[in-house]
Structure formats: C-alpha cells, structure tokens
Amino acid sequence: MLVTILGFGCNWWRRVGTDADDRFRFTRHAAFYNSTGVRCGRKIRRHWIVPGLIRFNGSGNFSSHSLERCVGQTFSCTEPVFALGGNRIVFNEKTNRCSEPDWFLVVVSSERFGMIDFRSAWLSEHSQVIAASRLRDKQETMLLMGAGDWVKTSMGLWRLTPTRELKVGAVLQLADTLE
Questions:
Q1: Residue 131 belongs to what domain range?
Q2: Quick check: 55 and 78 in contact, CB under 8 A?
Q3: Which of 60, 74, 102, 163 has the most neighbouring CB atoms within 10 Å?
Q4: pLDDT tens-digit profile of 85-119?
Q5: Who's near 160: CB < 8 A, 6+ residues apart?
Q6: CA-closest candidate to residue 142, choices 21, 37, 22
Q7: How far apart, in Å, are the Cα atoms of 59 and each of 7, 17, 93, 135, 154?
Q8: Distances from the Cα of 161 to the Cαs of 64, 121, 128, 143, in angstroms?
Q9: Which residues of the chain have pLDDT under 70?
Q10: What domain count does the chain have?
C-alpha cells in the first residue's frame, strides 16, 4: 500500500533499541511513533476516542529531524490493522516521487478545519480513521483518504482534491456539495 503524507498528528514519541552496546540503537534500530493529541497546558495528551498510531522504523529512510520534508512524500506501508488496542500502520520506506498513492494521510484539527460531530455522517465511506483525540473543544483526527473523499466539520464539507500544482500532491479544501 502506498500512502502520501499530507500532515502529521501533534503527538510524537520514540522507542530505541535495547542493546546498550549497539551504536545504532538511537537511529537505525529506533522506532518513531505519531498519533493524534490535544494540548493540555504545556503537554500533549492523547485523549483518544479512536486509538491508533503510525510507526516509522529508523531503518526506513525516515528522519525525525526533518519532518517537513516528509510532507508530500509517498511511503510503502502495511495495511491498517487493529492490534494492541488500536489501529496501526507501519510506514516502511519512501518510494520514488512518481508513485501514485493508494491513500493520503490527512490530519484534521479543530483549530484549522472546525469541530467534527462524530455522531453524524461526517466521513466518506471509503476513508479510514486511524486515530482521533478529543478534549472539550479541541479535536485532532488522523485519516486515510482517497482522492475525492470528504470530511464534514462545523466549518463545512472538506474534499480531498489531488493537484499537480502543489508539491504535496493533494489539498483538503472546502466543497459546495457532496457531488
């Protein structure tokens, strides 16, 4: 499965290898995790209503020091699975720029896109929720979306539109209708 990253959740953490004699345990043998979260004072908390995360292995051509360079990049990934109490996807390695993605990884935050009413029909049927966090009037939701898929918030209907004009390859923009 090929996924182009359009955004990341605000919650990052890292696990390193356990062999203290391994000089690569902080880089090649590390795993970087990303998920949704909300700011609580000076900390980021998960407050998951849908638990889930994405994982990058240190050996997969991923650098946590230049996250902005990963936006617009396409990665080969595992299929989403439910394991250990949440949705999970492993981002294995970057592919070449010409690869057409199967999905786009999109993060919808209440600050930028408005609040989602999770009790309503808020997401197109082919999109998949990876993780969602909510605390009072703050939300962040991580989605896999295909071209033309939509998400409905308090600000309106947002449709994912592929575009060759942007380096990232697609944009979530306000739409007039579901058609």
A1: 2-175
A2: no
A3: 74
A4: 999 999 998 887 677 899 999 999 999 999 999 99
A5: 104, 106, 145, 146, 147, 148, 149, 150, 170, 171, 172
A6: 37
A7: 21, 12, 8, 35, 40
A8: 27, 20, 17, 15
A9: 17-29, 58-67, 97, 167, 177-179
A10: 1
Residue 41 in tokens: 């004072």
The β-bridge partners of 11 are 35
SS3 45: strand
- pTM score of the predicted model: 0.87
Long-range contacts for 153-160 (Cβ within 8 Å, ≥24 apart)?
153/108, 153/110, 153/113, 153/114, 153/115, 153/116, 153/122, 154/114, 154/115, 154/116, 154/117, 155/113, 155/114, 156/114, 158/108, 158/113, 160/104, 160/106
